[in-house]
Structure formats: structure tokens, C-alpha cells
Amino acid sequence: MWLYCRYVICCFSYMLALQALQDELFKTEESYRQEQTTLQQLRDKSKNALLKYNTIKRSLSVLQEQAKSRHPEMEGKAKETVFSRSKAKEYKEKISQLQKMLSSTGVDSSVYHRELVHKSEELQKLKDQMAPLKGKLQTYHSLPPDISLTKVKLEEMKREVDMLESEVCKNIDLMHI
Predict the structure, then answer these.
(1) Residue 155 counted as domain residue
(2) What is the mean predicted confidence (pLDDT) over 33-46?
(3) Looking at the 3D structure of the chain, how many domains does it have?
(4) Is residue 61 in a domain?
(5) Dihedral angle sign, alpha carbons of residues 56, 62, 67, 68
(6) Is the pLDDT of residue 1 over 70?
(7) Sequence-distant contacts of 69-74: CB under 8 A, at least 24 apart
(8) Any coiled-coil ranges, and where (predicted)?
(9) Which of 28, 94, 122, 144 could disulfide-link 149, Cβ–Cβ 3.0 to 4.6 Å?
(10) In a domain, 72, yes or no
(11) pTM summary value
(12) Would 36 be classed as within a structural domain?
């Protein structure tokens, strides 16, 4: 019996060991599958990263080519900018000196360009306002200064209008005939 117990214990231990090995095998296979999935994901990411890297590398080379071709142009513009800035600084200094000179000589501000332009605009507005008034005034210049002479002139004009109307009527009648 002792042997039999030992045999059963041995068989049981063997079965437990086999079960433990099967569990270990299952865990290892599961781990292997997860690692394969992770590895596939990493491969995909690596491919995408490599594609992006190549695209960026090509873009960089294109940009470098463009930069090389534009380099002389950019240098020219940089020189122009430096020149323009130095001229602007020179002009500011010159303006400052001239303004100091003007203020020291006591020049009246009414002769400055801004003031002259403003006065010119005001003058033009006044001329525009006067134009219709001059037209009205011209109609009164043809009248004599005395009221009785004005009435006589008015009667002469009425006769002249009547005479013109009769001529027009005669011409219209002749056209109808």
C-alpha cells in the first residue's frame, strides 16, 4: 500500500506538473501572441515613421534647393534693407536738424505745407459756395439800377417774348401745311 500511495502521489505530482506545464505553455503562447501583435504594431509604426522621414527628407532637400537658388536674391534684398534703413536714419537726423533750424529762426507755422493745404481746401470750399451766388448776381447785373428803368426793360423783354412766340407759331403752321 505504501507503494501504491507513493505511486498515486507520484502520478498525482506528475499530473500536477503536467498541468503546471500546460498552464505555463498557455501563458507563454498568450504572451507570444501579445508580443506578435505588439511587434506588428511596432512594424507598422516603423513603416509609417520611415515613410514620413523620407517625405520630410525629400521636402528638406527641395527647400534647400530653393534656398540655394534664392540665396543671391535674398542677399540683394538684405543689402537693400540695410541701405534703406541707413537712409531712413539719415533722413530722420536731417529732418530733426532742419526742424531745429526752423524753430531757432522763428518760422511762422502758417507757411507749413500742411497749413497751406488746409487753407487751400477751405478756399476751394468757399469758391464752390460762391459759384451759385455769382450766377444769381449775374442775372441782376443786366438790370438797370433804377426801378422805373427796370420796368421798362421788363416790358421790352415781354414784347420780345411775344414776338418770338408768334414766329414759332407761324413756323409750326407752315410745317403743317
Answers:
(1) no
(2) 94
(3) 1
(4) yes
(5) positive
(6) no
(7) none
(8) 18-52
(9) 144
(10) yes
(11) 0.35
(12) yes
